[in-house]
Design goal:
alpha+beta, 15 helices, 25% strand
Length: 354
């Protein structure tokens, strides 16, 4: 997995959150809580995104069909929110059977045929029918998505064996911004294929200030405490991810007004691969490089002494557990750096394999 390739894909994005794993109600609040680290200035737009993200995530849970475990692993459900400048997109993908596909298709065709006032009346009509709305079969969430996004829902049914992958995309416009960016549903489907091929389970790009990363910890911690999703970490792995984010926070340069960074969790050679990436100056990279190289040549006792003798400002950045990884098998931890064109910054990535 080359994280810099993902940064190239999302280089215009101020915020990206991607989740490709199992979906359940317990994860909804945690996944959506991560939306709090987005840096949109318009509070009304932020609330609309949060509402639609909730509906979209729940839509995957409501409308997914049971398929075999092997097929589910080969074609996982997918949730993505991204903000490119002031243009916002929400994308989902999930498995459905033919009967669900037919029901959703007719519902979406009806929704697209209605104007704003007719859509409002239809929504109120469905909402008043408690029996149908509680079952979710009437597509109440889809109607509300269309109303709140103020753009037509883009959707596609891709046939896979005896079931379909249901792709859905919403766009949320910011009315005060003139520059408009459009992404087709084909773009989203191609991105899904890339993430599936690279076995990416989770990706977060945004502001990694200390106040902004709490929800990321909550997501990972929930997998430890509750066993949600397929990200089954132990406490040691969790602490190392925390250490990586700590390095990211303390070394990131300010880009577009935020401490820009990226966290990626993927499967690589049947191992978990954790990567944290950020933009740093050459001076900070030289400091990190020297410390990591020294650590890699030490035994544990030497490392403890070395760590104790580090200046206070360096000990605030690096944990001894993270440095200790360099004394283990060489292939388990690595770091790379790329020169960022037209800037004096470097794109720095730390990767750990479990």
């Amino acid at each position: 997995m080359r994280t810099y390739i993902l940064e190239e894909i999302f280089k215009q994005d101020r915020f990206v959150m991607l989740y490709m794993s199992e979906f359940n109600d317990d994860l909804t609040e945690i996944i959506l809580g991560i939306q709090s680290i987005r840096s949109d200035e318009n509070n009304n737009i932020r609330k609309r995104i949060s509402y639609l993200a909730t509906e979209s995530f729940q839509n995957v849970i409501r409308h997914s069909s049971e398929i075999s475990k092997s097929e589910a692993e080969s074609n996982p459900s997918f949730f993505l929110t991204r903000s490119i400048q002031s243009n916002h997109f929400i994308v989902t993908a999930n498995p459905i059977k033919l009967d669900v596909k037919n029901r959703l298709s007719s519902k979406l065709e009806l929704i697209h045929s209605l104007n704003r006032e007719e859509l409002r009346e239809y929504y109120l009509s469905v909402l008043s029918n408690q029996e149908i709305s509680l079952k979710g079969g009437a597509g109440l969430g889809l109607i509300e998505m269309s109303r709140k996004s103020k753009n037509p829902i883009q959707y596609h049914f891709e046939k896979i064996n005896d079931w379909y992958s249901f792709f859905l995309q919403l766009k949320i416009d910011n009315p005060v911004v003139e520059q408009v960016i459009d992404l087709s549903l084909t773009d989203a489907r191609n991105l899904y294929k890339i993430c599936k091929k690279k076995q990416i389970l989770f990706l977060l790009k945004g502001d990694f200030s200390l106040s902004a990363i709490d929800e990321t910890f909550n997501l990972i911690r929930s997998n430890i405490e509750e066993g949600n999703g397929i990200l089954h970490f132990d406490i040691y792995q969790f602490n190392l991810i925390a250490d990586m984010l700590h390095v990211l926070n303390h070394t990131s340069s300010i880009v577009n007004g935020i401490k820009a960074g990226m966290l990626v969790i993927a499967i690589e050679n049947e191992r978990y691969a954790f990567s944290s990436s950020n933009y740093i100056t050459e001076e900070k990279y030289d400091c990190i490089d020297k410390i990591f190289k020294k650590a890699s040549s030490m035994n544990m006792q030497e490392l403890k002494t070395f760590y104790k003798e580090l200046p206070d400002d360096k000990r605030k950045i690096f944990s001894i557990d993270l440095l200790n990884f360099f004394t283990l098998e060489e292939e388990l931890i690595s770091y790379t750096v790329h020169k960022v064109a037209k800037t004096d910054l470097l794109f720095f990535t730390i990767k750990i394999l479990f």
